[in-house]
Amino acid sequence: xxxxxxxxxxxxxxxxxxxxxxxSKEEKIALAEEKWKTVVQQYLExxxxxxxxxxxxxxxxxxxxxxxxxxxxxxxxxxPYLKRGMPQEWKIYFNQAVKCNSARWMGWRxxxxxxxxxxxxxxxADFDATDTLTPNHIDTPQGHSVDFWRGHAYLGAKNYxxxxxxxxxxxxxxxxxxxxxxxxxxxxxxxxxxxYENKSLDSMPYYLDKALYYYQDKSADSKxxxxxxxxxxxxxxxxxSYIDGGIExxxxxxYKRRPNFNEDVRQIYVEELIVLxxxxxxxxxx
Length: 286
Prior knowledge:
Layout: H1 2-12, H2 25-45, H3 54-66, H4 71-83, H5 87-100, H6 102-117, H7 120-133, H8 146-156, H9 160-178, H10 185-197, H11 204-214, H12 220-232, H13 236-251, H14 270-281
Helix pairs in contact: 2-3, 3-4, 4-5, 5-6, 6-7, 7-8, 8-9, 9-10, 10-11, 10-12, 11-12, 12-13, 13-14
């Protein structure tokens, strides 16, 4: 049976969807899966044009026509629209992907709401729903736990109490299960940022020290927030020292940022460090 199916697929893998109308449901699903493997292979072979090429989009359309419940294809169909600033088209397909496999794609939709739309309430709703759907499993959309993302979303929404709660929950779980050295340095940095904005400044040094330790001291953001901490204490010498280090590491590329398309939540820019430095060195100038 397996040999017959492989022979069938080899004969019909290149046909158009209209010609496949006489196939059984099982045959269409099998053919869709073979075409999906081709899509994945295209991505592996052409890393510079991995999403949105005419060739790939045509294949994905064929897959969805053969198998309307191919959840991964529905999700992949949405992505080029999102990255090209066409949110309505993205939403149509991504919502279908979420409906098709909520446990897999709900958290990813929350991530998109967080970074592409800055819609923190919708992001939090999706992260909460993901947590509910998998009560015995911590989901990690885009490589971070939903607790980390909830901390991030609540930071963006300026709900600092809940942001601290979820960041700490994430840090505690990873530390307990895997060890503190497996916690992302960004989690410690973000905790310091939340405490700064929450005006609980005395909690900042603990997290900044952790961040700098795991960043191996190379973190413009950690230096910047340590400068702000010492500024609140009136220690200009330490402020300038941290600012100098922050500018150096920023220019070397050691700062928190997203790889493509959008800026990070509370991303800093070198101008902020320079302005702070100038104000301290020339206090009479405005």
